[in-house]
Write a structure and sequence with these properties.
The strands form 2 sheets. The chain has a 7-stranded mixed sheet with strand order 1-7-6-5-4-2-3, sandwiched between helices. 39% of the residues lie in helices and 15% in strands. The mean pLDDT is 96. The chain has 15 helices and 12 strands. The chain is of the alpha/beta class and 392 residues long.
Length: 392
């Protein structure tokens, strides 16, 4: 039975592994900066690309390669470029496929730091970005210009879990001669396969659910090899490289990805249903709830609602902060994807550097709270949020 016939759960455990003559069962960690050649001719062939093999760990390392191959197998991608963080993955993607004078159409509800990257840093290098409503395909179509090179979005969005019709936006992008890149961080390939829906590129922050325990930073860009060759070229030259140690941690994380995502989503749905019944909660945002505006699309596009639940607390920022400070178990941190549940106030953390006008346009209000639901018992999570049940 070949790897191409394996189920996704088996790919998570077995795909991409290579073994040394020592016969180790767990993948080896190659903590080395460089690799030795048999002779000068082999060195020349490796550097010239005539012979495959490792050269220097800035751009070739066996442990990193195993991680790249495993994640590519899970996403159904031909090629993967691993990077040092999720943001460096986005940067490598854009620097690889775009040039000064190009135009990008991006969702206005992407991660706050991604907004800063496009609207400030990349703008200084001659890249123009138009931000549009994620869930409105016609807004994407209307934003197209003759120099549009890339569409960029994340679905579900952060922090409101808004859903984009990937297939519809992919068609619009391709009609415009542009590429579609999808940040699949929230769902991972365990819950969503953007490439199968028409996307050209998938971006990950491996820091999140790919790791699964909040240990290491990393990112990845996936797609066809011809599309990603310039992305790899950027990595090789600029060096936002994933370390071998982090790649090894991510390899271990991927082995349990499917069972973790199922448990995360099960807890998240139960918590979202409970939140809808609490008197201090004004509105809940979770794609697995029938009340979500894109519930039907989420049911079609994702295997479950995922692990992120956001909600508006009655009373604005003071009430949201009171709730966060009242927790005793849930970790107050802006990171997500951990086995431990985390809670944050997006307007003053992840989106604090976004202008108030842009936050309002993205729907990030002062009373909004985001919980990345972990693997604790659901009753303990409810008990830690008990303030929401009180009248007042």
């Amino acid at each position: 039975m070949s790897q191409h016939e394996w189920h996704a759960e088996t790919l998570s455990v077995r795909a991409g592994s290579e073994h040394t003559p020592f016969g180790e069962n767990s993948e080896a960690m190659f903590l080395t900066s460089s690799f030795v050649f048999e002779n000068a001719a082999q060195a020349a062939a490796r550097f010239g690309g005539q012979e495959p093999g490792n050269i220097y760990s800035r751009f070739t390392n066996p442990t990193v390669s195993m991680f790249q191959n495993k994640l590519a197998a899970l996403e159904g991608a031909e090629f993967c470029v691993a990077t040092s963080s999720g943001m460096s993955a986005i940067l490598a993607c854009v620097m690889g496929v775009c040039s000064a004078g190009d135009h990008v159409v991006a969702s206005r509800s992407i991660f706050g730091t991604s907004v800063q990257l496009f609207s400030n840093i990349l703008k200084r290098w001659g890249l123009e970005t138009t931000f549009v409503q994620l869930s409105d395909p016609e807004a994407w179509r209307a934003a197209v210009k003759p120099n549009t090179k890339l569409f960029f979005l994340e679905t579900p969005s952060n922090p409101l879990t808004e859903i984009c019709d990937i297939a519809a936006v992919a068609e619009i992008a391709h009609q415009a001669g542009a590429l579609l890149a999808v940040d699949n961080c929230f769902c991972t390939p365990a819950l969503q396969k953007p490439l199968e829906l028409g996307a050209d590129i998938v971006v990950h922050s491996a820091t999140k659910y790919i790791d699964g325990q909040g240990r290491c930073l990393g990112g990845a860009v996936l797609g066809r090899k011809d599309v990603l060759e310039p992305v790899y070229g950027f990595l090789r030259t600029a060096g936002p490289t994933m370390s071998a140690f982090n790649a090894w941690v991510f390899l271990k994380g991927l082995e349990t990805l499917h069972v973790r995502m199922e448990a995360h989503a099960r807890n998240a749905l139960a918590l979202a249903q409970w939140l809808e019944q609490q008197p201090r909660v004004e509105r809940v945002y979770y794609p697995g709830l029938p009340s979500h505006p894109q519930y039907e699309l989420a049911q079609k596009q994702q295997k479950s609602g995922g692990a992120i639940v956001s909600f508006d607390v009655k009373g604005g920022q003071p009430a949201a902060w009171h709730l966060i400070d009242a927790t005793r178990m849930i970790s107050i941190t802006a990171n997500l994807g951990d086995a431990k549940s985390t809670i944050t106030h997006p307007a003053t953390t992840t989106h604090s550097r976004v202008s108030p006008e842009a936050r309002a346009a993205a729907g990030v209000g002062d009373g909004l709270v985001r919980i990345a639901v972990g693997l604790e018992h659901i009753d303990d999570l409810k008990a830690d949020l008990a303030w929401l049940s009180s009248q007042g």
